Amino acid sequence: MQPVMASDTSKEQVPDKVGADLNAQRFQMLEDIARELAGDVVFPTSFDTAIRLRRELQNTSLPTARIAKIVGLEPLIATKLMQLASSVIYSPNGTPTRTLQDAVSRLGVDLVRTTALAIAMNQLLRAKDLAVFLSLTQALWDHSLRTAAAARVLAHTYTRVHPDEAMLAGLVHDLGAFYMVYRAAQYPELRARPDTVKHLIIQWHESIGVTLLNALGLSEEISNASIDHHQPRSRPVIVRDLPTIIYVASALDDAHSEWMDSSMGPGISDDGVVREDFAALLTEIERDANEMKTIFS
What we know:
Elements: H1 19-38, H2 48-56, H3 64-71, H4 75-85, H5 100-107, H6 109-125, H7 134-158, H8 163-172, H9 175-184, H10 188-192, H11 198-215, H12 220-225, H13 242-251, H14 271-277, H15 282-296
Helix pairs in contact: 1-11, 2-6, 3-5, 4-5, 4-6, 6-8, 7-8, 7-13, 7-15, 9-11
């Protein structure tokens, strides 16, 4: 009798689905997501702190000392706020913040909530089950930070939209893609073939993202800005409102194609043209994007 070999538990053993079976699994994921979005959206555990903080800080007239006390209970968020307040983005003259209350006073309650959400998104991508999607999640995170930085600069330069609102809209404009990667990781067959879900994410992340943004309690303006943000506009693009800011900000990221294949994304072919039109801003955007990546990653 041959000895029984111990099974290798270090690698996940799943049926190798291909063709129609694999397509069925992908569309099962979409059906499951649609069912979830039709009811009460259940966010990943990593979003708990961000959602709780948003609820606690709904009152924008809370005294700065009270906000600092609430945020101080979350050491990671408090640390990131201190770093952000002292960064070149919010302290161009290099004046550091010495206390959390000073940081909150400089940044404001909206940016406190944005920081909490940025940390939640980054923690979500670090989840163990998402390891097989590493190249996609890294490209998504980098694109989100670059879009957020570009949106802030565009709002400040061309519009009356508050730069911090634009930055938040840029940060979350692809939230639907984050959520779809998270849900794909729940299916062993899709974890075994991570590249097979990319096309679905590109097709569906915008509509799914709008529902998620509404469920998170973000403003209608921010939710609407994420609608069709990859659809090309006629040239020249005039930056006047938040939806146009997000379209241009996303297109200005020359690394965008790392997660949006040009053969799938309808607006990607126009990105080079957009970068030519707004080339004067690229140095400032790159500086702010690198600063945000240092702080939030």
